[in-house]
Amino acid sequence: MGEWFIGVLGGSGLYAIDALEDAAWQSVGTPWGEPSDRILTGSIAGTRFAFLPRHGRGHPISPSGINYRANIDALKRIGCTDLIALSAVGSLREELPPGRFVAADQFIDNTRTRAGSFFGSGLVAHVSMADPVCPRLAGFAAAAATRAGAEVTEGGTYVAIEGPQFGTRAESHMYRSWGADIIGMTAMPEAKLAREAELPYALVGMVTDYDCWRSDEAHVEVAEVLRVMHGNADKARQTVVELARLLPGTREPSPIDTCLDVALVTDPQARDPALVAKLDAIAGRVLR
């Protein structure tokens, strides 16, 4: 048991949280390079938060240019216990209109060029991603978004694409046939890396558009996405405030906190010392 320290990964249009008390931006270095930006730390209703704008303030970083490993390492390194991702997404379902929030519970990774693991040659680990979202955290996040005034759908499959281009109509129909409900460019490998870091993760997708699968609608335009996104941003910020009010005073342990106990497969004598050193924040608990 212990205290909550919530890391918030802010997506497009969400670059700060005004409600943080004693807020301060701090630089956090990692062995994986620099994170997207400095991290804004503070508290709300007695709960500690760390906010990291995923694309950097002013949005200078494209989805494929994000250093996902550095972002997750930095949040783990400063002591975060859980991660909430707030992300702009497109809808692949009629019943998920622009403006709706979706608490995703599954992911399909259709990215191609991104470093997807902290582990590799010299130290191999296999974490389970069967259930990639922490149900406890996702439940709190969905309830918080509802209290913030959003229409919320609990559960849904997020397909992550490489970008930065929006997809073709054929791709959009294909993703619908796969069973995907929303589409975005940043949840993967973010969710995988959070699991490797033993950080419970939940994602609230903020629908900005219907992607391009509807034959009677124009294709996705950035101007329209930005208009809806800015409307969602106020509710997203309030969601963080409501989350602080909803969290129990004590954080009970999660099975995800110790998932590396059954994930490491490389014999200690065969481990690469350089990689072990880089994993000090991510896996130091099991490598000491």
Instruction: Summarize model confidence as the mean pLDDT.
Output: 94
CATH fold naming: Rossmann fold
**What is the helix/strand order?**
EEEEHEEEHEEHEHEHHH
**C-alpha-based Rg, rounded:** 18 Å
Structural class, please?
alpha/beta
Portion in beta strands: 15-25%
Q: How does the major sheet shape up? A: 11 strands, mixed
Shape: globular
Q: Report the CATH architecture.
A: 3-Layer(aba) Sandwich
Count of extended strands: 11
Task: Give me the CATH superfamily.
Answer: Nucleoside phosphorylase domain
Low-confidence stretches: none
The overall number of domains is 1
**Cα end-to-end separation:** 22 Å
Helical content class: 25-40%
Give the number of helices. 7
- CATH class category label: Alpha Beta
Question: What does this 3D model show about the protein?
Answer:
This protein is α/β, with parallel strands linked by helices and 288 residues long. It has a single domain, classed as 3-Layer(aba) Sandwich (Rossmann fold), CATH 3.40.50.1580. It is 28% helix and 22% strand. The chain contains 7 helices and 11 strands. Strands 1, 2, 3, 4, 5, 6, 7, 8, 9, 10 and 11 form an 11-stranded mixed beta sheet that branches. Helix 2 crosses helix 5. The longest helix is centred in the last third of the chain and has 25 residues. It starts with a strand and ends with a helix. The mean pLDDT is 94.
